[in-house]
Amino acid sequence: MSTDPPTLAPGRPRSLVHHPDFRRLWTGDALGQLGAQLTALALPIFAVQQLAATEWEMGVLTAAEFAAFLVIGLPAGAWVDRMRKRRVLIVADLVRSAVLAAVVVTAATGHASIPLLVVAALVVSAATVFFDVSHQSYIPGLVGLEHLVEGNSKLQATASVAQVAAPAIGGLLLRVIAAPALIAVTVVTYLVSAFAVGRIRHVETPPHPDTRRPLRVEIAEGLRFVVHEPYLRRIVACTALGNFAGAMAGAVTVIYVLRTLNLGTATWGAIVSAGAIGGLLGAVAAGRLAQWIGEGRIIPLSALVMAPASALMPLASTGVVPAPVLLIAGGAAFGFAVIVYNVGQVSFRQRVCPPPLLGRMNASVRFIVWGTVPIGGLLGGGLGTHLGVLPTLWVSVGIMALAAVPVVVSPLLGMRDLPGSPVLDA
């Protein structure tokens, strides 16, 4: 169990800006997000342009980036609950930094290949599983339950700022430097992130080894909680289907933009950045929307926006409206909806779950919702190869529409406050 979270000084504003340990976590997260976004931009471009990746190879690469959630997602939660989460965060940063440094070296020496990128993606995926589970499980003990929405909103806003800035900067830099040079920046940002998290003073006391039970028992407890909590079960179903659809589209999106629509890398970076502005606005607006609409209703309402927004991507090929305009509009709307949805559902998960189960609950949720991503990526690569890129995007839109059904056709649509939520003022 962890010690009580630090409290803000009497008379000081309640904002987490004045929480020293949260500022350190926030700084580390911001640096890691910046580097991760540059890598997310550079890796597929490197694969498509310099390594001539096919639709199937891009599907495999997409699957590798999330494979660990499916393979080790469940035991990772039980392991994290047994460890100091701050230490897990630091080690995960260092592992990701080392692996990406190896990618840069192989690219510089002319030994880069799609199989090497896939292996690197698998290792980074495993480190990311531990980082993400620890990160979400660390927040409640670090800032206290009363600051969860604010903390999650600030972290989501940071991620959105990185999504706006990194692709715009990266797209311009890719005109004059090679993609591996952008990946090298990530090596540095992960190292600095590890340093910032290492300065957190909050002390955790993990459970005594004598209190541990068999791993399968602890894993089953996390899964049982997710399956038996009725609202969480619906949220997980929606998220899993949405991620599956997104992975299908993601496997062929770079090929669609660079080859089918014949847009350059700078334009692609600008499109991603403009779309991420919607996510930033969503992070800023999430708290107020929850107060205005209700923390329960905001989840299905935001899910309803995702399919129409994603449909603008394949519609960009019609030529009726300039393709960048539709891609920018669709990305902005989709990013806004996803971030509002995530702030609401993650905050609910953290409040409704007993603290000793947080790691296992988060791991169980991620096992389900991210475990669909490698499957979706492989299916997207296969469909792109046999049906074509555009039909694959339309299939993804259809599945995205189905994803909203579990939360829309449910009591969530009529609920203002969710169980475990503080009462929201109208």
From TrEMBL:
Main localization, broad class: membrane
One cellular component term from this protein's GO annotations in UniProt: plasma membrane
Any single Pfam family the record assigns to this protein: MFS_1
Keywords from the named record: Cell membrane, Membrane, Transmembrane, Transmembrane helix
GO molecular function: transmembrane transporter activity
Sequence ranges assigned to domain Major facilitator superfamily (MFS) profile in this UniProt record: 182-426
Membrane-traversing stretches: 58-76, 180-198, 235-259, 265-286, 298-317, 323-344, 365-387, 393-413
Topology class, membrane: Multi-pass membrane protein
InterPro entries referenced in this protein's UniProt entry, alphabetically: Bacilysin_exporter_BacE_put (IPR022324), MFS (IPR011701), MFS_dom (IPR020846), MFS_trans_sf (IPR036259)
Subcellular location: Cell membrane
Keyword Acetylation: no
CDD domains tied to this protein: MFS_MefA_like (cd06173)
PANTHER family on file: INTEGRAL MEMBRANE EFFLUX PROTEIN-RELATED, MAJOR FACILITATOR SUPERFAMILY ASSOCIATED DOMAIN-CONTAINING PROTEIN
Protein name (Swiss-Prot/TrEMBL): MFS transporter
